[in-house]
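Input.
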Amino acid sequence: MGKSPRGRRAAPLVIARVLVLCALASLLWGGTAQADGVSSGADVQVAQTLGTRDLTIVLRRMDIAPGPLHVDVVTHAGSAPGTLKLRASTAGNTFSEATVELDGKPGAHPALLKVDQPGPWELGLDDGTDTASIPFLVPARVIPPWEKATFGGFVAAGVFLVIGLVVALRVRRPQLALIPAGGMVAALAVAVTGAMLSASTPAPPAPGAALDPTIDNVQDPYANAQMSTVDFSRPPVNLAVKAPNARSGGLAELRLAFADGATGRPVDDLLVHDNALVHLVVISPTGRLWHLHPVRVAPGDYRVKFTPPEAGTYAVAAEVARRGGGVQLVRATMDVATGTDSPAEPVPTGAGRKVVHGNPVDVEVKPGTPTTITARFGKADLQPWLGMLGHLIVVGPITGDHRVGADAAAAPTWAHVHSMIPQSPGMPGKPDETVAAYGPDVPFTYTFAAPGKYRIWLQAERDYTVLTVPMQIEVPPEGAPQ
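Output.
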């Protein structure tokens, strides 16, 4: 018994309604999918002690390449005027250049460069006397496989939907519409599965952070996920320090050679850690401190200049972060010959409330328990330095007052403590040095593990000048009366 004409006319409409309902379901399920891929990056701040200038190089975030690369050169108080040449290069070839005129006034000086492709790049600096090279990464927008499956499935489902509607409404045998309907259901299954698995799909090693970056793996890290060139148990680095012809009262150049502890080859995989490739702390024989940031001139070869004020043995400590090797502190010493010595200022000692250069410092030391050291710097106009509100260097225990450099070199404790920037609602990312809105209190929390005499230096920045407050603290034995 055949179907009535009315029933035959209704069949295409029923199938069409089913297809429309499937399409609506696909839209509802599709709303759960979220984009993923390689991050478009953020501002990169790198401190550089270039010759006699302390600079902060800020590479503004890029969303797409080719495109412009905005660079700010931040100078500090006392920075000499001059011309700074910048160049962006990849694979050893210079792609663009720019010139920044430093007028001697502290602040940000903008420059504009161009890059033409994602991948590893270098930013070159040249002031006519000294040069530096800063590795940086231009990110790429990468579509992960699950996202391709999700969007590809929804596109295919839409195509099958159109075909099914055409077949259901135009063809005399509307049952044929079930074929594209089945294809649409299969495509939806692929899309929904990809969207549901996206949250649990592990990301590939991130080029530049966990993976040695190349043009290929930056553009598609998923294609090289099984071809990692990084050894996640990379050995520590060895440090050799040379300061040829260093004399007190004269400008000296420190040459730092970082070598792989296993192969002896130059190390060229240092990461920007706390806004610098290398944090170098130098302590003089009488306890004066320099917190410097050597410049990279070649793989494993870093240089920095400063004027040692006195002869004797200086303690040198470099804090670095190696890709696949984590953060490491390496120490050495350097000797400075007699030249023109300058006397050191006396260092406050003891515990309790002390005033140093007009800055009150509250210290209440309790051995074996967290100790909060709070420095007050007058007004709430402090600037972030190296991405932090303040820095605290702790060295000790030491034995004497006149051989601090030599004692510090052998001291069991070297610590670099941070005071974090308070969270500010509505402020995207990490503020740079152009923001002066913090303080006046700069608190640090640290636990002195052993009793004895310690030298500490508290640091913060105001008016593009790094303020350093030195102190000496006596940590009593556990259980001793305060």
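The two ends are 106 Å apart (CA to CA).
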